[in-house]
Amino acid sequence: MVDPGAFGLALLQDLSSIEEPRLIEWDWIRENFWEDIVPAIQGHIFLSFVSVAIALAISLPTGVLVSRYRKAYPPVTFVTGILYSIPSLALFGILISIPGITIGPTPVIIALVAYSLLVLIRNTVAGLDAVPAETIDAARGMGLTNRQILFKVEFPLALPVIVAGIRIATVTIIGIATIGAYIAAGGLGKMIFDGINRSFPTMIITGAVLATALAIFADLSLLALERHLRPWARRRRA
Amino acid sequence: MGAILDVLKRPDFFELLRQHVLLSAVALVIGIAIALPVALAIRNTTLGAALAVNIGNIGRAVPSLAILALCQPFLGFGFDTALVALTALAIPPILINASTGLREVSRDVIDAARGMGLSGGQILTRIQLPIAAPVIFAGIRTSAVQVVASATLATFIGGGGLGNLIVEGTQRNDTAILLAGSLSVAVLAILTEVGFGALEKGMTPKGLKIAQKRGR
Q: Which of B152, B157, B193 sits opposite A85 (nearest CB)?
């Protein structure tokens, strides 16, 4: 006959001897903050920023061109649309199969640029389309050259739509950049992968939370920047 | 090229493809089953709609890898964990689109329907849902493409799918396996995009199509 009290006690001891895996080990975060976490954030910002910058350098001129030569618009959206729908891990795989491209930041940046093109070009064209024809006529009547009209009238008026595209592209890129760690591009994804491989939830959660926070922060900063670049909108609201 | 085809003929290829499609399809169906009723329930409340859009937007900021990885410590490795994560990923686009689509049905149209004697239920099924259908299906398409893409990442938490081939190819440094996995995932994603795009077009009521054409 087993004494139920003793049995219960034994069970309790048994349970307490199993070490509870804690979700967040704050000690680990404190110890590795400067050595691991900060460089991961910096690496992630670098990957995302370079990709958005290159994508913009391609998309803005392309957007202006296809808004003028309308026939080129459907093929451009078709090609960038196909690029956009290729899953990132697959695109990384295809890129590193190309001789001369090795694992590291390069294929990841190429892929991130490819993903941004669709939304950036589409929003540039939509933004330029929305500029009223009368405004452009008025600018021409005032003697502005085509170049001046583009830079002083069309771009400023198209800005909200273009920035909306940049915001979507940036949030997408920051998310996808985490997967880049799988092919040795570094960044916050490395913490997520290391956390999975070591069964260490603290690393997974830290990487995931920081990547999400970075995306939200970038989104809100771009929104603030857009407001700042449109003083007339601020004045009207005031 | 031949080496890639050899990989596609491997007996486990079909099994991985089956897992990938099953994961994506089940996650999408459960996602629709959750997001649509919620969107319907909150269609007449401003607070609910704002909440849905905000939750959806925050959901979009969480990287898909993060959602899959975050489920692992709680649910362990395996197919079911990946399914839960992918379902969570499927919900936001459908919720946002269904919620805004239903709200953007013009007040005048609903008033006209009420004036013609339609009941609340009739207005929903004959007016609001058909008019919102293209927007709702656009959300389902976004969600489907995202789920098929993210199912590739299921491999990292032991969920299987075609991502297994990409990982195998990378680890063994075998370009044929890597390309077989990558290209089949890419084709599957593009087919999903095209297929759901056609569905979206098919679900647009005839009257709306005429209006869209005139608008352009």
A: B193
